């Protein structure tokens, strides 16, 4: 087993991308055999050692796992956990208490007992007459309302619509709350994924010369190809027309811009009185304040991150980062101090505790946090 000094040197070499195959194997073996034997443990102030140790091991192991066997180890996982380098080294040098116990309790007002948990599969189905149905409370199988089968709950977090006769067509809305996400398959086979605080309004069957839906928030579309009937998505100040493709639309009311990112195929975006045709890897960005549209390339990992269970920040302002956190963890955010020019990059799981995400941001040394109930205070 590596000593602390050997581990630190090897870790720094790993971060520089200069590890040999043998050294990479040593590093992986070290984290597999990770122990906390050298730390003097005070159970009264630091908590249950076994519980803390297990939680930390899971955290480090999750962030260090590889994702593509065809790439060298340092390239497979660098983007997913480079932000934890400082945390891991501090753990070895300074002990577990600073990283887990002290930092966690420094976030939290001890007079509060509210536990902030990550979001999950949660949505409401709104029928054409305004009736709201909690999808989480429905059993798997056919969704039957007033004796009519409307859809199929194919799994937790997934609703599927099938073909219906024209006289039964209704407009339904799926809405996710803060801290919710959901997947829906529309009647034509198009698949949509809703992020937190999002909605999509759609017909239970598509007739006529086009397939028309409306959305708000963030939705990823995998559109079923139908050359005779374009698929049209209406969102904040824009319409997107496609035949069959994959794209992501981010159109939250509280964001300063509307972003349409094309993964594959081709889309036409009608926005601010102008029409833009996007190619794979391009996105349109509509600035609501300036009422201007620009096009740019984007990082595919960044766009797909929320579906794959990650937050991925790419030179984003603290306000933008915290809006993502607030929607997913259903919290309120307040700021104290100057936040101008504070940009963040990194990747962290969306399914960890909120303090894990805040830990990552604090490692930059530019902000600190305090949690009071369901409110997060950001201090610059």
- Biggest sheet, open or closed, and with what strands and sense? 19 strands, mixed
The span between the termini is 40 Å
Count of β-strands: 24
**Number of separate helices:** 10
Which outline best applies?
globular
Pfam families: FecR, FecR_C
GO molecular function, one term: sigma factor antagonist activity
Organism: Sphingobacterium gobiense
Keywords: Membrane, Transmembrane, Transmembrane helix
Structure write-up:
This protein is of the alpha+beta class and 380 residues long. The protein has four domains: 4-107, no CATH class; 118-207, no CATH class; 232-307, Sandwich (Jelly Rolls); 309-379, Phage tail protein beta-alpha-beta fold (3-Layer(bab) Sandwich). Helix content is 27%, strand content 35%. The protein is built from ten helices and 24 strands. A hairpin with a 5-residue loop joins strand 2 and strand 3 (132-134). Mean pLDDT is 79; it is low at 34-39 and 53-105. The chain crosses the membrane at residues 81-100.
Key descriptive features of the protein:
35% strand, sigma factor antagonist activity, 27% helix, 380 residues, transmembrane helix, alpha+beta, 3-stranded mixed beta sheet, 4 domains, 19-stranded mixed beta sheet, Jelly Rolls
Compile the SSE list and pairings.
Layout: H1 4-15, H2 21-32, H3 43-46, H4 49-64, H5 73-81, H6 85-94, H7 96-107, E1 120-121, E2 124-126, E3 132-134, E4 141-145, E5 148-155, E6 158-160, E7 171-175, E8 180-185, E9 191-194, E10 199-203, E11 211-222, E12 231-235, E13 238-242, E14 246-251, E15 257-264, E16 267-271, E17 274-278, E18 282-287, E19 292-297, H8 300-304, E20 310-317, H9 318-329, E21 332-336, E22 343-349, H10 354-362, E23 368-372, E24 375-379
Parallel strand pairs: 1-8, 6-8, 11-12, 21-24
Antiparallel strand pairs: 2-3, 2-7, 4-5, 5-6, 7-10, 8-9, 9-11, 10-11, 11-14, 12-13, 13-16, 14-15, 15-18, 16-17, 18-19, 20-22, 23-24
Helix pairs in contact: 1-2, 1-6, 6-7
């Amino acid at each position: 087993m590596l000593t602390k000094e050997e581990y630190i040197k090897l870790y720094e070499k790993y971060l520089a991308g200069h590890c040999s195959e043998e050294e990479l194997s040593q590093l992986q073996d070290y984290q597999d055999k990770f122990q906390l034997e050298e730390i003097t443990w005070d159970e009264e102030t630091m908590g249950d050692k076994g519980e803390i140790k297990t939680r930390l091991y899971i955290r480090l192991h999750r962030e260090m796992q590889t994702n593509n066997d065809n790439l060298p180890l340092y390239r497979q996982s660098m983007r997913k956990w480079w932000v934890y380098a400082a945390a891991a080294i501090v753990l070895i040098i300074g002990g577990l208490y600073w990283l887990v116990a002290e930092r966690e309790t420094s976030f939290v007002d001890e007079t509060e007992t509210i536990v902030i948990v990550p979001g999950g599969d949660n949505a409401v189905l709104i029928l054409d007459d305004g009736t709201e149905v909690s999808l989480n409370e429905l059993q798997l199988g056919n969704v039957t309302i007033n004796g009519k089968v409307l859809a199929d709950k194919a799994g937790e977090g997934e609703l599927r619509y099938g073909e219906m006769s024209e006289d039964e067509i209704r407009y339904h809305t799926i809405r996710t709350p803060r801290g919710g996400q959901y997947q829906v398959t529309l009647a034509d086979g198009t698949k949509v994924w809703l992020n937190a605080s999002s909605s999509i309004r759609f017909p239970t069957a598509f007739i006529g010369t086009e397939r028309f839906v409306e959305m708000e928030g963030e939705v990823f579309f995998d559109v079923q190809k139908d050359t005779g009937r374009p698929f049209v998505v209406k969102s904040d100040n824009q319409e997107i027309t496609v035949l069959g493709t994959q794209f992501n639309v981010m159109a939250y009311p509280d964001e300063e811009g509307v972003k349409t990112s094309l993964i594959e195929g081709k889309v036409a975006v009608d926005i601010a009185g102008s029409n833009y045709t996007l190619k794979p890897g391009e996105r349109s960005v509509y600035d609501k304040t300036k009422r201007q549209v620009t096009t740019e390339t984007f990082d595919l990992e960044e766009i797909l991150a929320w579906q794959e269970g990650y937050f991925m920040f790419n030179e984003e302002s603290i306000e933008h980062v915290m809006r993502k956190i607030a929607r997913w963890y259903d919290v309120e955010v307040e700021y104290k101090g100057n936040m101008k020019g504070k940009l963040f990059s990194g990747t962290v799981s969306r399914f960890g505790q909120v303090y894990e995400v805040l830990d990552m941001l604090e490692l930059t040394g530019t902000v600190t946090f305090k949690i009071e109930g369901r409110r997060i205070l950001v201090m610059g």
